[in-house]
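Reopening this ticket.

The earlier resolution said the output was attached, but the attachment link was broken on my side. Pasting everything inline this time so it's all in one place.
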Amino acid sequence: MKLTSEKKFDYKNSLGFYLPDLAGTDKENMSIEEILSHQAGLQAWIPFYEKTLLKSGKYKTGYYAKHKSEDFPTQVAKHLFVVKGFKDTIYEKIAKSKLEKPGKYLYSDLGYYFMQKIIEQQTQRKLNEYVADVYSQIGIGLTYMPLNYFSKNQITPTEKDTKFRKQVVQGYVHDPGAALMGGVAGHAGLFGNALDLAKLMQMYLNKGELDGKRILDSNVVKDFTSCHFCPKNRRGLCFEKPETDQRKESPVTSECSPESFGHAGFTGTFAWADPKNKLVVVFLSNRVYPDADDNRLTKLGIRGKIHKAFYEALKE
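Inline output:
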């Protein structure tokens, strides 16, 4: 949205327009608008780390080291560094991945790996540095690689990861793909608190402005938070939206206005803004601790019930 506001990015372009390396692949002419609406045909996700493991679950020789070096420069977790060039392997695997059905809604984080490349190419800066500058303008402390800025005991533990990192993950991103990217990725890796997220959502609610400082063009915010392929696909660009078809399950309580938007994340994050009701709701949970397998947060519908309680309070 920031780059669109500055006329440095246009979602009407194809992926190959920004990334000529994709020439000759079936991703070259993929619509960025469809990628950001999750209907471009990309797979839901790819477990890249499995390539580095033996059937026994042990690490294959040559993929990891306990200490940082020229050959193992990228930190994945505590005392775990992945071999040089693995980022390129990830991009290559996405570029060669089999397409699902284009035009059909399927949530996928794979397109956001490419968005990181585009952002870094257009700004000539690393993603973590660029977003830090944007957020600092409005006093938001969301950050990649939080151990560079906070002590470990200020950061909630993420997961007792027995499959991939074989340790308690704390201060490192939960998503294994983002971890293999060094903790800075287009689809995952940000840490923060509820107040940080509330400020961000309030800025969106204000159409790109917070505390008198304009960060985003108001028309860009309105466009990105609107549905682009309704009624078949309810999503905005990047943003989740309420389901307006009563026969389908909605990600949020039915009290939400159709103009509302937000995100519900795998690890238990939830942030939602409703312009009509002037309401921002943020709920944070490390539901993947101690492990990610039993998603009781979703099974019990906790986020939806909490969200509904705020609307009940508004009525009163």
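Reporter confirms the inline version is readable. DSSP finds eleven helices and ten strands in the chain. Strands lie at 64-65, 74-77, 80-82, 159-161, 167-169, 209-210, 213-214, 261-264, 270-274, 279-283.
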